[in-house]
Amino acid sequence: MNAAERFVKITGEVGAYTERLTGVSVVDAYFGPEEFNPRTSEKEKPVSDIVHDIHLALDALRDEIDDTLRLEFMMGELHSLNVILDWLDGKEISYSELVEGLFHISMEKFSEHEIDKNIETLSDVMENFPGKDLQEKIDNFGKEGEVTGDSLQKLLETELQQRGIEIGQEFRDKIYAVIGASVPDMGVQYEAVRNQPWGGYNWYLGGFKSLNQFNIDRKFNRDTLQATIYHEYEHHVSNLWREKAYLKTGNLELSIVPLHTGRCVISEGTADTAKEFLGVSEDDPRILVLNALNPLRRMTQINAAILLNDERKSVEEAIDYLQNRGYRSRESAEASIDFISPTNKEGKINFFAPYIFTYFIGRTNFVYPTFLKASQKDLLPDFFKTVYMNPYSGSSVTWNKAFEWM
Ligand SMILES: [Zn+2]
Questions:
Q1: Separation of 122 CA from ligand 1 center, angstroms?
Q2: Of 157, 216, 360, 392, which has fewest CB within 10 angstroms of its CB?
Q3: Please, which residues have CB within 8 angstroms of residue 7's CB and are 6 or more apart in sequence?
Q4: Residue 233 Cα to ligand 1 middle (Å)
Q5: Distance CA 41, CA 93 (A)
Q6: Torsion 48-347-325-310 (CA) sign
Q7: CA–CA distance, 63 with 3 (Å, rounded to integer)
Q8: How far is the CA of 202 from the centre of ligand 1 (A)?
Q9: What are 198-251's pLDDT values in tens digits?
Q10: 336 CB contacts (<8 Å, ≥6 apart)?
């Protein structure tokens, strides 16, 4: 077996293991040959054997792969998979070691002073919005056009299906046209689901199509729906280019998309920056509010995750924190706990517990500053080429190296 084949096989086996322990497979998507399909991988392989194979694969990579970006990308991903095994196998590992080991970023708590500064900014942009104080203004803001449950399902099947098609066109007009290259796009199917720890999820199905699921237990409004659609559509786009690169190069590792690696940091970062990529209008006062509210929500959710997982505080304390500092309703705070809590409702390890860092850090420390710099230097075509046409740029391990030319 060559190094790329080892890589895919290992990812599939780690997927079977994480699924057995947490109910969630680390394999987020697969569009490679049937021979390596993770569905057919060994289900009960001992962890020590998989770890041994990871070490053999790391050696094989060093021998076989000359492209340094590709090599570092794959080694970073394998290291993350190794950390997943250590974590779920019960090795002594702190939350900060976990976050750093998986995502190659540091676990930083935001100071209350920083949170205060964000709250001030939010107060300023909401000055003329209705409500007696900031909490009431945010509550009113959230309730405008609020939709959930059956009516959200109806919306998904009609208007939002159409909105997805329009966003696909925006990507063609504003990004692919600039790059001077195209990618097949068989579109995104929208579907309503319930009982999930997340609000929305892009399942890339291969064959250049995706299924976007929305959790209709959650409450959305016009703005959060729009933000979620852009975010999930960008995941679809990023996978389209990855599949195209896989078909063109035959590099097998591109055909498997793992969760909980350095890849996720960039993937969530680009998804959270899709609106800027597409130049979606910023004059709308509601968008200005979202631009202040979203970072506050992401930062307080990170702090709440640290309270729960690192400082071992109670769920009640984390809910209080999200309400008081993130200006969430009780209901929204409780829903966001599902994603960051150390265990899920069935008492199993919550696979997503370390994941919350990827969004904010991916956007703030990686994608957005590089995008701004490219924009200032008039280098956006090359920026988008690097992001979408070089899949090995898409990891927290390789991002800065991939943009050294800039
Ligand atoms: Zn995402």
A1: 24
A2: 157
A3: 57, 61, 74, 77, 78, 252, 253, 256
A4: 9
A5: 27
A6: negative
A7: 9
A8: 7
A9: 888 899 999 999 999 989 988 888 788 888 889 999 999 999 999 999 999 999
A10: 301, 304, 322, 328
- What separation in Å is there between the alpha carbon of 273 and the centre of ligand 1? 11
Q: Give the pLDDT confidence of 236-258 residue by residue, as tens digits.
A: 999 999 999 999 999 999 999 99
CA of 267 from ligand 1 middle (Å) equals 7
**291-334 confidence digits (pLDDT tens):** 899 999 999 999 999 999 999 999 999 999 999 999 999 988 99
Contact indicator for 15, 351 with CB cutoff of 8 Å? no
* pLDDT tens, residue by residue, 94-117: 999 999 999 999 999 999 999 999
How many whole angstroms from 198 Cα to the centroid of ligand 1? Answer: 10
Q: Within a domain: residue 8?
A: no
- Cα-to-centroid distance, 272 and ligand 1 (Å): 8
Q: Kindly state the DSSP code that residue 403 receives in the 8-state scheme.
A: T
Q: Residue 242 CA to chain centroid, in angstroms? A: 16
Distance 201 CA to ligand 1 centre (A): 7
State in Å: Cα 232 to ligand 1 middle: 6
| Ligand 1 center–CA 328 separation, angstroms | 21
CA of 204 to the centre of ligand 1 (A): 12
Burial class (CB in 10 A: 0-12, 13-18, 19+), 146: middle
Is 136 among the domain residues? no
Residue type present at position 4: A
What's the rounded Cα separation, in Å, for the pair 149 and 220? Answer: 10
- Asked, for residue 373, whether it belongs to a domain, the answer is yes
Cα of 373 to ligand 1 centre, how many Å? 24
What is the count of structural domains for the chain?
Answer: 1
Residue 84 inside a domain? The answer is: no
